[in-house]
Amino acid sequence: MTRHRRPVIALLVAPETSASVLYGLYDVLGTVGPMWPDMTAAEPGGHEEGQLPFSAMTRRVRTDDRAIRECLAWIADGYATPAPVGAMIERSGLTPRTFARRFRAATGRRPIEYVHELRIERARGLLEGGAETVDDVGHAVGYEDPTFFRRLFKRTTGMTPAAYRRRFAPIASLPAA
C-alpha cells in the first residue's frame, strides 16, 4: 500500500499583505483546508461563492512596450482618476485603437477591464482594513456612482462589499505571526 503525502509549502509573507492576496495564494496552491474550515462552508441560505472572493488580480505585463509600461506605472497610483483610460491614451501619445490593441497585447485585458480590476483590488484592501463606509470606499477608488461600484464589486468577487467586509475584516485585523 502506497501512501501519498501532500508536500508542505512554507510561505514567508509580509505582515501588511492583505487577506485577499493570502487567500489567492492559498487558492492557487490548493491548500485550503483545516486551517480555515469556514472558507469551504456554505453561507447561511445555502449558496456558496466558490473561490471568487479569494482570487487576486494577476498582472501579466510585456516589458518591451515602453508606452504601455509607462501607462501601467502611472495607473498603479492614478486608478482613482476620472476617465483613467482617456488619461492613459493621452499620456501614451497613441491613437485610441492602437493603445487598446497594444494594451491588450501587454496585459491580456482591455484597458477599462484592467482599471476596474485594479480599483476592485484596492477596494478589497480598504474594506478589509478600514472603517470607511462602502460608498466612501467606492469613491476613494474612483467610482462616482455607489450603485455601480456595488454591482461591479459583486460581479467581480461574488459578494457585496458589505458581505466582503464582514467576512474578511476580522481576518485582516489578526496580529501578524
What features would you describe in this structure?
With 177 residues, the chain is mostly helical. It has a domain at 66-170: Homeodomain-like (Arc Repressor Mutant, subunit A, Orthogonal Bundle). Helix content is 54%, strand content 0%. It has helices at residues 19-29, 66-78, 84-92, 96-107, 111-129, 134-140, 146-157, 161-172.
Summed up:
The chain is 54% helix and 0% strand. The protein is mainly alpha-helical. It has a domain at 66-170: Homeodomain-like (Arc Repressor Mutant, subunit A, Orthogonal Bundle), CATH 1.10.10.60.
User: Stretches where pLDDT falls below 50 for ≥5 residues?
Assistant: 6-17, 25-48
The CATH architecture classification of the domain at 66-170 is Orthogonal Bundle
Shape: elongated
How much strand content do the residues show? under 5%
CATH C-level label of the domain at 66-170:
Mainly Alpha
The CATH topology of the domain at 66-170 is given as Arc Repressor Mutant, subunit A
Q: Could you give the topology of this structure?
A:
Layout: H1 19-29, H2 66-78, H3 84-92, H4 96-107, H5 111-129, H6 134-140, H7 146-157, H8 161-172
Helix pairs in contact: 2-3, 5-8
Key terms for this structure?
Arc Repressor Mutant, subunit A; 0% strand; elongated; 54% helix; mainly alpha; 177 residues
